[in-house]
Specification:
With about 150 residues, the protein is an alpha+beta fold. It has 2 domains: about 55 residues, no CATH class; about 80 residues, Immunoglobulin-like (Sandwich). It has 1 helix and 10 strands, in the order E-E-E-H-E-E-E-E-E-E-E. The strands form 3 sheets. It has a 4-stranded antiparallel beta sheet, with no helix packed on it.
Protein backbone atom coordinates (compact mmCIF):
# COMPACT_ATOMS: atom_id res chain seq x y z
CA UNK A 1 0.00 0.00 0.00
CA UNK A 2 1.55 3.28 -1.07
CA UNK A 3 -0.91 5.45 0.83
CA UNK A 4 0.16 8.40 2.93
CA UNK A 5 -1.71 8.60 6.19
CA UNK A 6 -3.27 12.00 6.71
CA UNK A 7 -5.36 13.89 9.18
CA UNK A 8 -4.35 12.57 12.59
CA UNK A 9 -7.28 12.75 14.96
CA UNK A 10 -7.64 12.06 18.65
CA UNK A 11 -10.45 9.57 19.06
CA UNK A 12 -12.49 8.94 22.23
CA UNK A 13 -10.48 7.21 24.97
CA UNK A 14 -7.25 8.90 23.75
CA UNK A 15 -6.67 6.62 20.75
CA UNK A 16 -4.81 8.17 17.84
CA UNK A 17 -6.17 7.50 14.34
CA UNK A 18 -5.28 8.42 10.76
CA UNK A 19 -7.44 8.16 7.69
CA UNK A 20 -6.57 8.14 4.01
CA UNK A 21 -8.18 7.38 0.70
CA UNK A 22 -6.95 4.11 -0.76
CA UNK A 23 -6.30 3.56 -4.46
CA UNK A 24 -9.87 2.33 -4.85
CA UNK A 25 -11.21 5.54 -3.35
CA UNK A 26 -12.40 3.84 -0.19
CA UNK A 27 -11.53 5.44 3.12
CA UNK A 28 -9.02 3.48 5.17
CA UNK A 29 -8.96 4.07 8.90
CA UNK A 30 -5.95 3.10 10.98
CA UNK A 31 -6.48 3.21 14.73
CA UNK A 32 -3.58 2.85 17.10
CA UNK A 33 -4.97 0.89 19.99
CA UNK A 34 -1.78 0.90 21.99
CA UNK A 35 0.93 3.42 22.68
CA UNK A 36 3.75 1.03 21.81
CA UNK A 37 5.08 1.09 18.18
CA UNK A 38 5.33 -2.71 17.86
CA UNK A 39 1.60 -3.17 18.43
CA UNK A 40 0.80 -0.22 16.17
CA UNK A 41 2.76 -1.74 13.26
CA UNK A 42 0.75 -4.95 13.58
CA UNK A 43 -2.41 -2.88 13.21
CA UNK A 44 -0.97 -1.13 10.11
CA UNK A 45 0.02 -4.45 8.51
CA UNK A 46 -3.54 -5.76 8.90
CA UNK A 47 -4.90 -2.62 7.23
CA UNK A 48 -2.43 -2.96 4.34
CA UNK A 49 -3.42 -6.60 3.81
CA UNK A 50 -7.12 -5.70 3.70
CA UNK A 51 -6.55 -2.95 1.11
CA UNK A 52 -4.41 -5.27 -1.05
CA UNK A 53 -7.16 -7.91 -0.92
CA UNK A 54 -9.81 -5.32 -1.91
CA UNK A 55 -7.69 -4.19 -4.88
CA UNK A 56 -7.20 -7.78 -6.05
CA UNK A 57 -10.94 -8.42 -5.87
CA UNK A 58 -11.70 -5.23 -7.82
CA UNK A 59 -9.24 -6.09 -10.60
CA UNK A 60 -10.73 -9.57 -11.10
CA UNK A 61 -14.30 -8.28 -10.92
CA UNK A 62 -13.76 -5.69 -13.68
CA UNK A 63 -14.96 -7.63 -16.73
CA UNK A 64 -15.29 -5.56 -19.91
CA UNK A 65 -18.75 -5.06 -21.36
CA UNK A 66 -17.87 -5.11 -25.08
CA UNK A 67 -15.30 -6.49 -27.47
CA UNK A 68 -12.59 -3.96 -28.27
CA UNK A 69 -9.54 -4.16 -30.53
CA UNK A 70 -7.33 -1.24 -29.57
CA UNK A 71 -4.81 0.52 -31.79
CA UNK A 72 -1.29 -0.80 -31.46
CA UNK A 73 1.25 1.21 -29.50
CA UNK A 74 3.54 2.65 -30.65
CA UNK A 75 2.37 3.25 -34.19
CA UNK A 76 4.46 3.65 -36.34
CA UNK A 77 6.80 1.15 -34.69
CA UNK A 78 10.27 -0.37 -35.08
CA UNK A 79 10.65 -3.32 -34.49
CA UNK A 80 8.11 -4.11 -31.71
CA UNK A 81 4.61 -2.98 -30.85
CA UNK A 82 1.86 -3.94 -28.39
CA UNK A 83 -1.62 -4.89 -29.52
CA UNK A 84 -4.33 -4.85 -26.84
CA UNK A 85 -7.87 -6.19 -26.93
CA UNK A 86 -10.66 -6.88 -24.46
CA UNK A 87 -13.09 -9.77 -24.30
CA UNK A 88 -16.39 -9.50 -22.40
CA UNK A 89 -16.62 -13.29 -22.18
CA UNK A 90 -14.28 -16.24 -22.63
CA UNK A 91 -13.83 -17.00 -26.32
CA UNK A 92 -11.66 -18.70 -28.88
CA UNK A 93 -9.52 -15.90 -30.30
CA UNK A 94 -7.48 -15.60 -33.47
CA UNK A 95 -5.24 -12.56 -33.91
CA UNK A 96 -3.37 -12.56 -37.22
CA UNK A 97 -1.13 -9.98 -38.90
CA UNK A 98 -1.36 -9.59 -42.69
CA UNK A 99 0.73 -7.72 -45.24
CA UNK A 100 -0.99 -5.50 -47.83
CA UNK A 101 -1.19 -8.41 -50.28
CA UNK A 102 -3.34 -10.36 -47.83
CA UNK A 103 -0.66 -12.87 -46.81
CA UNK A 104 -0.60 -13.89 -43.15
CA UNK A 105 2.82 -12.90 -41.79
CA UNK A 106 2.25 -13.69 -38.08
CA UNK A 107 -0.25 -15.62 -35.96
CA UNK A 108 -0.17 -13.89 -32.57
CA UNK A 109 -3.07 -15.64 -30.79
CA UNK A 110 -4.90 -18.82 -31.69
CA UNK A 111 -6.79 -20.33 -28.78
CA UNK A 112 -9.19 -19.88 -25.89
CA UNK A 113 -8.79 -16.79 -23.69
CA UNK A 114 -10.55 -15.54 -20.55
CA UNK A 115 -12.80 -12.50 -20.36
CA UNK A 116 -10.51 -9.54 -19.62
CA UNK A 117 -8.06 -7.15 -21.28
CA UNK A 118 -5.16 -8.85 -23.07
CA UNK A 119 -1.91 -7.47 -24.52
CA UNK A 120 0.21 -9.17 -27.17
CA UNK A 121 3.68 -8.11 -28.28
CA UNK A 122 4.34 -8.21 -32.04
CA UNK A 123 8.00 -8.40 -33.01
CA UNK A 124 8.56 -7.54 -36.69
CA UNK A 125 12.33 -7.32 -37.12
CA UNK A 126 12.15 -9.96 -39.91
CA UNK A 127 9.61 -7.94 -41.95
CA UNK A 128 10.23 -5.06 -44.36
CA UNK A 129 8.95 -1.55 -43.71
CA UNK A 130 5.34 -1.02 -44.71
CA UNK A 131 1.71 -1.06 -43.71
CA UNK A 132 0.31 -4.17 -42.07
CA UNK A 133 -3.19 -5.15 -41.00
CA UNK A 134 -4.07 -7.06 -37.85
CA UNK A 135 -7.35 -8.90 -37.57
CA UNK A 136 -9.08 -10.35 -34.54
CA UNK A 137 -11.79 -13.00 -34.56
CA UNK A 138 -13.44 -13.76 -31.20
CA UNK A 139 -16.78 -15.53 -31.38
CA UNK A 140 -18.92 -13.44 -33.74
CA UNK A 141 -16.70 -10.34 -33.26
CA UNK A 142 -14.35 -9.50 -36.15
CA UNK A 143 -12.32 -6.30 -36.52
CA UNK A 144 -9.31 -5.15 -38.55
CA UNK A 145 -6.89 -2.33 -37.78
CA UNK A 146 -3.82 -0.92 -39.53
CA UNK A 147 -0.26 -0.41 -38.29
CA UNK A 148 2.93 0.94 -39.87
CA UNK A 149 6.40 -0.57 -39.54
CA UNK A 150 9.19 1.96 -40.15
CA UNK A 151 12.81 0.81 -40.26
Amino acid sequence: MNAIYRHPQIMPSNRLAWWTAGRLGAAVLLVLLAAQPAQASVQATATQALEAQAEAMASTAAVPETYVLEGNYPNPFNPETEIAFTLPQAATVRLVVFDMLGRAVAHLVDGALAARRHQVRFEASHLPSGTYLYRIEAGSFVQVRRMVLLK
